[in-house]
Amino acid sequence: MLAELKREVLAANLELARRNLAIYTWGNASGIDRGLGLVVIKPSGVDYAELTEDLMTVVDLEGRVAEGKLRPSSDTPTHLELYKNFPGIGGAVHTHSPWATAWAQALMSLPCYGTTHADHFYGAVPCTPPLTREEIEFDYEVNTGKVIVRAFAELDHLAVQGVLVAQHGPFTWGSSPAQAVENSVVLEEIARMAVLTRQINPGITQVDHVLLDKHYLRKHGTNAYYGQKPAAE
Amino acid sequence: MLAELKREVLAANLELARRNLAIYTWGNASGIDRGLGLVVIKPSGVDYAELTEDLMTVVDLEGRVAEGKLRPSSDTPTHLELYKNFPGIGGAVHTHSPWATAWAQALMSLPCYGTTHADHFYGAVPCTPPLTREEIEFDYEVNTGKVIVRAFAELDHLAVQGVLVAQHGPFTWGSSPAQAVENSVVLEEIARMAVLTRQINPGITQVDHVLLDKHYLRKHGTNAYYGQKPAAE
Amino acid sequence: MLAELKREVLAANLELARRNLAIYTWGNASGIDRGLGLVVIKPSGVDYAELTEDLMTVVDLEGRVAEGKLRPSSDTPTHLELYKNFPGIGGAVHTHSPWATAWAQALMSLPCYGTTHADHFYGAVPCTPPLTREEIEFDYEVNTGKVIVRAFAELDHLAVQGVLVAQHGPFTWGSSPAQAVENSVVLEEIARMAVLTRQINPGITQVDHVLLDKHYLRKHGTNAYYGQKPAAE
Amino acid sequence: MLAELKREVLAANLELARRNLAIYTWGNASGIDRGLGLVVIKPSGVDYAELTEDLMTVVDLEGRVAEGKLRPSSDTPTHLELYKNFPGIGGAVHTHSPWATAWAQALMSLPCYGTTHADHFYGAVPCTPPLTREEIEFDYEVNTGKVIVRAFAELDHLAVQGVLVAQHGPFTWGSSPAQAVENSVVLEEIARMAVLTRQINPGITQVDHVLLDKHYLRKHGTNAYYGQKPAAE
User: Nearest Cβ partner of B23 from D189, D193, D226?
Assistant: First the structure.
């Protein structure tokens, strides 16, 4: 069942380690089959070196295990909230990559200081508010998803495909598991650049909307002219 | 004698180099056989590339060499203090990994700024006070162990499995040599994240106890639900 | 056509990835045949791992594709402005390398703090002013080239073979594609050193002109005595 | 002639690249045969990948080429000043390693903040004053050596085997070329740690002399007890 999606999700998880976004078991990637309403996700606490397609866990959107002998990632309820609330996404990723996590721990949204950011995220990447005591104590992982969804109440989740969960770390998503991983890689890189930018010039402000539009839309808009064909995200 | 423990201690020492926690001979890992009261430790000043199981030194808890032609690590008396005072630990590690060492040199305990820290250490990782002139001049390595033990007088050494020795660097411990190494890896990573977090937001404070409890206990408590079986550290 | 130049340009693009100046497709290198008035450049959005000589695009100085099935890099018009206005250059490179990009995002020229810089760039590497709304909205990539050229109105583009485009990132050039890549590598390294230098001593100022002359000219002047023959850039 | 020393000097130069202390040709190592009064040094501007024993240059203490077809490193006169003034050293190294170079560019001596430093350098690593206009314009490389020697007028060059040349970068030395390289590696690492230490605690001061004595002398004194035999530097 879902052999191709399992392959994609396995590859996405391995890419997290290969791109230095996750040590030990500190990251997880998932993918969804929208037709079947089933999500493939990494099992909890299993080393990347030992992951195989057959070890991937399959759950339905209520979190019931549909296939797999291993317990799914403890972050599964967060992934499910994303799939249920963000139509059109096909993959999701969570890591503790150090620069993005530092912004999350600092309780700061990541400002857009240049075209590297603007090429991939249409404006600042928001940091959620910290969860309340009640949100932490009951249904913590579900509430982590809900606080993300609320942060996008007024924001297009397809134009900004990532978030910083306060005191925790980044989540990203995308059209596929691979796209969600790429967004995590980019988020880490622009998080690093933004720290350095502010160190060099503490008074720096975000780029103007004109430059943001130019760069984001030349890669992602209907008139995109970057790459070999119109971007279809 | 102690063939399996020697293998584990050798592997732990090599892992220090592989994880970039130690260059040259700047780190050492040990393990204890509680039944025999014997500790296996790296010989002093030998390159990781030349280490073999047979070169490992075996000492008793008073530091007398029980086996091995080479002098044990000069930090052996510190390891022994840890084994004598921290019941239940099976391995210990000392490194000069740069980010953790920077906190130790700064004479600052490492605050808990997020869930990456809370997943592994139940609260701030303490920095000891500097040793006194007398403690440095007589029995220096023993006193290094004693200052660590005193720092845990009111702290559970199984809930916070590491320390920053002022002006020196990190020591970690764990249920096994491998677990002690993993704690050194994590300590280095959260030490880095904490520097970046404070750089982004100098006014940041530690996470609330509710979040600390949630994350530490979902991995380590009796109701742990992370991974494939209850954590048994 | 242009087989040798295609080889050089391919090698230059691969070197960008190998030197960690570009992830994904975030960099591009080009080279020019001055006799034919043709420029070889990386195709847009193609992974470095998939690049071959045959995939390289050939354009004339007006940007018309002379050979190649793929769309040239979206930054091609910027490269062309450089070739048209900077006589004597044979290669050009654009990257988003993090330390140089941070200076560009900080809207700051890179000061010359030492001999590493002075060995390669004859004084500060300028940061352009941000493009105006009109320059962004119409002919953006051409205008990116024009703002670079204007920054060198009073500056010798052969003595300072690189620039920081505000809110964007570095462009470098050189006698060949390989030389342009080397200049990108050096620019990234001195951009990093300069951040660290200012962190250690915020009051630091640029080196005196005497030291700048000494180092630049011992490698690049007519009396150069570095290396095995007079430098011929 | 000097086959063994050439092997050592070649190995030392290659180690500079392998330890990430030098990119391109940005570093050089040399060694001296005190009996013959001859110095083996890297040729100028030759890539590490192309270096062979036969390409090494041999010069006498006045800088006259005794063997070798290639021009010696442009820094040769600096190395010779060190050999002439620092009796007992057998090797010397110059790099532009980024963290040590940042301290040199910041015109700051490297303070001793902890035992990692104290294990290898007996106190702060001095930064020279900038060279004067006259020192730069005439016999620059000789004067670079002289300013180093003057910085050690009141300092034991065997207890502190390295220096930061203002606005330039680190030079180190040691009993052999390999030992000089190791000192460069250590200097880079403690330069990094010191930046981080000051970032965490800007008010930090150097360690007390008691701790400095303890650590330096347990590795280097006549009663040294680190390693497998008394250190014989």
Answer: D189
Q: Which long-range contacts (CB under 8 A, 24 or more apart) does D195-199 make?
A: D195/C196, D195/C199, D195/C200, D195/D99, D195/D102, D195/D103, D196/B98, D196/B99, D196/B102, D196/B195, D197/B102, D197/B105, D197/B106, D197/D113, D197/D114, D198/B106, D198/C200, D199/B102, D199/B195, D199/B199, D199/C199
Q: Is A20 at the interface with chain B, CB within 8 A? A: no
Tens of pLDDT along C56-93? Answer: 999 999 999 999 999 999 999 999 999 999 999 999 99
Query: Contacts of residue D198 in chain C, CB cutoff 8 Å?
Result: 200
Could you tell me the residue range of the domain that residue A133 belongs to? Answer: 3-220
C24 assigned to active site: no
Which CATH number covers residue B152? 3.40.225.10
Evaluate whether residue D179 is within a structural domain. yes
The count of structural domains within chain B is 1
How far apart, in whole angstroms, are the C-alpha atoms of residue B110 and residue B93? 18
Of D193, D214, D225, which is closest to B98 when you measure between CB atoms? D193
Q: CB distance from A44 to chain B under 8 Å?
A: yes
Q: Assess D131–C contact: CB distance below 8 Å, yes or no.
A: yes
Q: What is the ipTM of this complex?
A: 0.94
Query: Within a domain: residue A230?
Result: no
Q: Is residue B113 in a domain?
A: yes
pTM over 0.90: yes
Nearest CA in chain A to B202: A106
- Residue D197 contacts B where some CB pair is shorter than 8 Å: yes
Residues of B in contact with D209 (CB under 8 A): none
Average pLDDT per block of 10 residues along chain A, 233 residues long: 95 97 95 98 93 96 95 97 97 98 98 97 98 97 98 97 98 98 98 98 97 91 73 37
